[in-house]
Amino acid sequence: MNGQPISGASAGAGRRGRGGARVSALALGALLVLTACGGGGSGKGDDGAGKKDGGKVENAASRAVVTIAPKDGADAVATSGALKVTAAGGKLTTVAVQDDKGTRIDGRISGDGASWEPLQHLAGSTKYKVHAVAKDSDGRESAKDTTFTTLVPQNTFIGHYTPEDGSTVGVGMPVSVSFTRGITNPEAVEKAIKVTAEPSVPIEGHWFGNDRLDFRPEKYWAAGTKVTVKLNLDGVEGRPGVYGKQAKSFSFTIGRSQVSTVDASAHTMRVVRDGKEIRNIPITAGAPSTTTYNGQMVISEKYKVTRMNGATVGFGGEYDIKDVPHAMRLSTSGTFIHGNYWASAGTFGSANVSHGCVGLRDVRGAYDNGTPAAWLYNNSIIGDVVIVKNSKDKQIAPENGLNGWNMPWSEWIA
To answer: Per-residue pLDDT tens for 235-244?
Structure first.
């Protein structure tokens, strides 16, 4: 009904003469119908113009206005700091950002609903779609969609990491990432690397210089732990104008616990597996003029046979042995635990004669699996711990090899 019967009824009520009673009755009926259609005394009505609830316009536009930066269609957008979403006249309710492969970018809407920012950087050379929705105080929605493309990096870096994906390693194995360029924005780079463990344990990173970042827990890993590493470096500006180009995940497993303790003064090595001593081996450590470092060292490489040349580690031409058997690296500077076939059998367990390495009795050619050196080699894995004590030398530097365990936890996390 549009209200016209009311005005018609009013005109009929003022007429004189025949038919007046019938017009009045029609007018009364029309009023009753209007009252019934209008809902009686509910206070709500529809005047035919789309108004409800005290005159509010049902289909009016939302007062909320969504703004997205960068603008739709923008190119060469920075991977950090450029993406922002805001709302005026309302509050953001939904913000979805994803690349053309469907990978979503996590973000957070502010407490007042006025803004949204990503919780991570964007990848380089990537097209993104943004969908944002805001509501005004009456619950009316306003939405906006944009697309943009990030910059193409001209200079890049990656991280070389250890241990290998899918490997089983010892309880001392840290996650170590060495970067191809010196990093001047370590906070951004470290934030882009996530290391988690199952069962869960706090894991912290520590920088050695500007090109190496290691992660470890406070104590050795528990046997059987599953560790996952996510390198989300693509688009991270590690130094001005130099961006990461790596997005990779890898995982490894902690095997049984094996920690071997070398007592340099007693010339012995006690091998403990899962808390139980499984062997005590006679050894020879560094001679008085070339002592062995003290401290906790992690096996980082294994070679059944390798060459050792004194010239490569500061000993000039003092030795050049082309076939050292059963060698396992303990430091970057050249400390190994290895087989020794050139010393007499009586040396092991009684004297220290090496140039700083820990030597075990062996045979030339590494063919005899019955020697102490062969046994240790065959029963050791990358990441096992070798501790040296009672040597007349200093403690090994934490960055010399994978040996961050020599740094107190309070210093590590600082």
So the answer is: 999 999 999 9
d(C-alpha 122, C-alpha 98), whole Å? 10
Q: Determine the pLDDT at residue 45.
A: 42
254: three-class secondary structure by DSSP: strand
Cβ-Cβ contacts under 8 Å for 136 (sequence gap 6 or more): 62, 63, 64, 89, 90, 142
Full 3-state SS string of 141-175:
EEEEEEEEEECCCCEEECEEEECCCCCEECCCCCE
DSSP-derived letter for residue 318 is S
What are 58's strand-pairing partners? none
Nearest alpha carbon to residue 367 among 308, 305, 306, 309: 305
First vs last Cα of the chain: how many Å apart?
78
Residues present in the chain in total: 414
Q: Which helix (H) or strand (E) holds 23?
A: helix 20-37
Strand 159-162 with 141-150, pairing: unpaired
Residue 321 confidence (pLDDT): 92
Inter-residue contact 311 to 320 (CB < 8 Å): yes
Q: State residue 8's pLDDT score.
A: 36
Instruction: Flag residues of the chain having pLDDT under 70.
Output: 1-58
Tokens of 23: 């017009």
**Residue 303 and residue 328: Cα distance in Å, rounded?**
6
